[in-house]
Amino acid sequence: MAKKKNGFVAGMDRLPWIVKLILCLPVLDIIWAIYRIVKGAAEGKALTLLFGILWIIPGSIICWLLDLICTIFMGRPKFFC
């Protein structure tokens, strides 16, 4: 049986592709770090939660590029999710 998604996670998953791309830009990428934290906590995935926490500082400096590439090719930032 599939788990029900958290409202924030489901809302982020339903965003248009262009909005997801904009949220991958530096400084705005913190939104995807919060997404990872909420998703990791809701689904009980410790690795996703850990990367969400670690993504906050490096995410706005370097990791935004990984999110941008994943969003372009996969539709959302799936890196460590």
Please give a structural write-up.
With 81 residues, this protein is an all-alpha fold. Helices cover 69% and strands 0% of the residues. The chain is globular, with a radius of gyration of 12 Å. It starts with 6 loop residues before the first helix and ends in a 7-residue tail after the last helix.
Instruction: Kindly estimate the percentage of residues that lie in beta strands according to DSSP.
Output: under 5%
Number of helices: 4
**Number of separate structural domains:** 1
Element pattern in H and E: HHHH
What is the number of strand segments? 0
Kindly report the oligomeric state of this protein.
single chain
Topology:
Blueprint: H1 7-13, H2 17-22, H3 30-43, H4 46-74
Describe this protein with a few key phrases:
81 residues; mainly alpha; 69% helix
